[in-house]
Specification:
By secondary structure, this protein is mostly helical. It has helices at 2-8, 12-28, 33-58, 85-97, and strands at residues 62-67, 73-77. The chain has two domains: 2-58; 62-100, no CATH class. It has a two-stranded antiparallel sheet with strand order 1-2.
Length: 109
Amino acid sequence: MGKEKQQDELTFEQALESLQEIVAQLENGQLGLSESLECYQQGIGLLKHCHATLAGAERKIELLTGVDGDGNAVTRDFDDAETTLEQKQASRSRRRSAGEDVDEPDDLF
């Protein structure tokens, strides 16, 4: 349990660096079976930590809600939990059926 707590306290960059070191050790082929398994398990923990950190970062995206009178963007934090899967699907369907194409430069502003 001590290693899990240590991994949770790592920054994304620290966890990624440790994961890269583990991969290098495993690829080197100089470790015994038990050492390799221990490194592999540590690597899995670090990988889960990195994925969780990235998922948290993705949830912090800001949504553009409008533009104020001075032309400044008005935003709010994106909270993925407040939108149900059905609402997300309906929103995508409406955009697709409306023919929205975000790659068209004329439609951006």
